[in-house]
Amino acid sequence: MERIRKALKESVRVKEEFVNESGTALVQLAERIAEALTNDRKLLLCGNGGSAADAQHIAAEFVNRFVLERPPLPAVALTTDSSILTSIGNDYSFDEVFSKQVKAIGQEGDVLLGISTSGNSTNVIEAVKVGREQGLYTAALTGGDGGKLRRMADLGLVVKSKVTARVQETHIFAGHMICQLVDEMLFMAK
After folding, report:
1. What is residue 137's three-state secondary structure?
2. First-residue to last-residue Cα distance in the chain
3. Looking at the whole model, is its pTM more than 0.85?
4. How much of the chain, in percent, has pLDDT values that exceed 90?
C-alpha cells in the first residue's frame, strides 16, 4: 500500500508542477485548436507506444465527445491505419510514417500535436518538420528536458520528469484539459 501512496503522491506532484509551468501554454494550445476548428481545419496527432494510445484517445474525445453534447470535431490520430504505417515503414522508413501522412492530409491552418515521452522520437520530429513546412501550427507534448521536439515545435509543453509513467499520466491529463478547454471555448456561452 505504501508503494501505491508514494506513486500517487509523485503523480500529483508532477501534474501540479506541469500546470504551474505550462498551464498558460496549455490554454494557448487549446485556443489555437479552437481557432483551427472554427476555420474548418483539423487537429492531427501522432506518437509511439503509449503516446500513440494517447493520440488516439485524444482524437476520439474530439470526434465523439468529451463531456459536452456537441457536434463531432475533426481530429485524426496518424497512428491508427496499419496499412499506411506498414506500407511507409516497409517501402521507406519508420521515420516517415507520420511525416508522409502530414504531407498527404495536412493543410495550412491545421494543428499538429506530436507526443513523445522523450521528445526525441524521430518519426514525430519528422512530422513536426513537415508540418511547419506546410504551414501547420505545431505543438509538442514531451517529458524530461523536452528533447529536440521542444525546440522545433511552435509550442512545447514539457512534463519535467524522467519517469515514463509519470510523464504519460500527465500527458493524458493535458489531453483531457485540451479537450475540455476547446469544448468550453467553442460551445459554452461566454
Report:
1. strand
2. 45
3. yes
4. 98
